[in-house]
Amino acid sequence: MEPPECPVCLQCYDGDYTVPRVLACGHTACEECLINLPKKFPNTIRCPACTVLVKFPPQGPSALPKNIDLLRLFPSSSQITLESNRNSKKSVEFVTRLWSDDFYATWKDRILPHDAVSVEGSDFALCGCLKDDSTVSLLQVALFSRDDCDSVLKYSYVQRMMSCLWGMREEERNEIDVIISVEQRGVSKVIGLWGDLKNGVLYLVGEKQLTGFLSEEFDYLTEDDTSFFAIIGMQICEALLSLHKEGIFIGCLSVSCVKFDEFGNAFVDLIELLVTGRNVYRLIAEETSSFSKPVGALEMGMFLVGLLKKGIFMSSEVLFEFLKEQDVLIKNASSKDLVSYSSDVWPVCFLLLKLVLGKRFSEELIESVNRGDRKGCDEGIEDFLLLYTDFTEKLSSRVESELGGTFIPIIKILSQCCCLDPQTRPALTDLWKCIRELVVYPRFSSMNGLSKPFSGKRKEYSLVLGELCRLVEVGSKELEEELPGMENDTEAEEGKVDIDFVGRVAEGKMKSKDMRRHQDSVTGLAVGGGFLFSSSLDKNILVWSLKDFSHVHTFKGHQDKVMALIHIEGAEPVCVSGDGGGGIFVWSTTFPLEEGLLRKWYEPKDWRYTGIHALAYSEYGHVFSGSGDNTIKAWSLQDGSLVCTMTGHKSVVSTLVVQNGVLYSGSWDGNVRLWSLSDHSLLTVLGEETPGIIRSILSLAADDQTLVAAYQNGDIQIWKDDTLMKSMQIQSSAILSVAVNGKWLFAGGWDKTVNVQEISGDEISVDCTHVGSISGSSAITSLLYWEGKLFAGFADTTIKVYYSGR
């Protein structure tokens, strides 16, 4: 057997250097550690073994008794029992989320507020807490349920968006992750995700630059426009090179992808790139629907003409990959279908040629393809590669014949960019350098740092060949099959089926039942002995079965309104109730239930008296009552004798909670006081750190080391280890009742809604996330969560229980 040791420094007790001292809670630590332990409040210390806040003598640990037994014995059985009970405490989950904490942390800040985007006609603008009057572009990426009227619990906006994201395929989420993360010069930023609750659509929201001018109104650029051409060409190249840094290449560009800001700088629009990819996907899907043989010159000509008419320029290898996805065979096109960074050179070259040659460029391309198709049909040519090679050769010769003067230096490289083999094309950096020399003297070219092509730092992929481009428009049949959403087959995936209370409620699988027998507002709820107990202003206490929620008994005897209720387990289980006249009644809950009282007693009255507002019970056999005379009284449960009166609050003591060996009292004066259960002395006061702000505390709830206080202005405050961690407003009016179980927090009050929050964090910081809400018929006066069931008492005399079908 090993000798006993200090729980802080792990040194064995020896009576000389490591002296064991006994704290008020019964646990022991060495004298040196007790001196050095932090003491947040005067004359108190937190036990390092059980974390209970206990009294600490001002003269130091030497005034504490020495634990002689520990010098020769192992830790006491009481400590072992306490630690065993703490470790075996069962934490009942209110909801097991489909997604992990890491998933939530990754996506929560990327979801824009539901009021962030305003829709007026066909225009979209940022509003609310974001930038006003800033137009944005939207891209549909997923569907979610528009109406959850069949659900008892209404998911919050963020939770619904998280469910929608979780229902998407991982590949789609990864693309969205990369797109939102892009913050490169020359690329329009994708701000985040926004859910249109009216139509049930999740959008990517991107910044919208001014309309691009690569349109039909610019028919031809002259030599005087060389600088203009060079600047625009360089900026387009720089934008794509920036995407290469993120591991993204495109292989496809359209005139609508290039936008301009108020200073005339060119931007590549990511949202428009995805739209272009979808247009290509849709066009190819339509054209190939009737093909049953390998594609030849005629069919490929149809694809090219369709793309050119839409102002879309696509490299050959990317086009081949699109066709492969449609199970379309292309003769002799498999050996050189290499989609890579060099695939971006082709569409940039064509876009620049359109900028130089204007409208007639597209017309001549279409005519050239059509002539090639007719020639191929006449000569029986089915090999598209021959047709494509002939097409690019004619294009190169046309470039050399059309361009001249100051454009001569880039004629050669533009011709090389049209090469069918991507491995023989020049790099995009080489194209950038050549265009730069139109405005910058060659002797200054050595100053730039583009010595080699960029390589992606992430997983490399083509944007237009990705998952998001395969999605189609909202309202079509394909959308319901392709777009992921909250109702998709998430339950079919292994490891994503564990949904309990909130999950079943949100799916409409949760049952609720009304329990109606009271004649006035419900004031308290308690569970014990297989029963639910409810108190009311009708002066009665009703007993309900927890099996079928039927009424089984009524306790009668109070002459005043019953304001508080608790149940006490033990050798003789009892229910204790307190009324507005100062009466405290003890009822036996041993089955079969009886009508008569075990005992009752009354508080002494004075001119300030307004009755009992709260009750609590300690393991020492004391019942505590919070009163309208600003005091807390401890009573003996056995005979009702007054043990002591605790004073200090400056207003009505409205709520009491016992947790971890401490009595917490909340008052209308806005403070929470902590009292020792052993000697009833004041340990410390919470809430005094905000002087001048008085918010009445109406309810307290505690679980393990977490304390939650609810206020009359709709605020809640969360303490951990008696340190304020979070203060926030979750309702617009008074919160009359609050309950906490593990990480789940429930609050209800005058707004007739049960607000469900999830508490997360650690000893450094705490976060509180709104999960959803349950609407009620009137003000919620009492809440109780017990083993997967949520009980709510209402001011309209109703008790509702929300439970699973099982």
UniProtKB/TrEMBL annotation:
Pfam families: WD40, zf-RING_UBOX
Domain RING-type: 6-51
PROSITE patterns (alphabetical): PROTEIN_KINASE_DOM (PS50011), WD_REPEATS_2 (PS50082), WD_REPEATS_REGION (PS50294), ZF_RING_2 (PS50089)
Annotated ranges, domain Protein kinase: 92-444
Keywords: Metal-binding, Repeat, WD repeat, Zinc, Zinc-finger
UniProt key word Zinc: yes
WD repeat start and end residues: 515-554, 623-645, 646-685
Top-rank taxon: Eukaryota
Coiled-coil positions: none
GO MF entries: ATP binding; protein kinase activity; zinc ion binding
Protein name: RING-type domain-containing protein
Species the sequence originates in: Arabis alpina
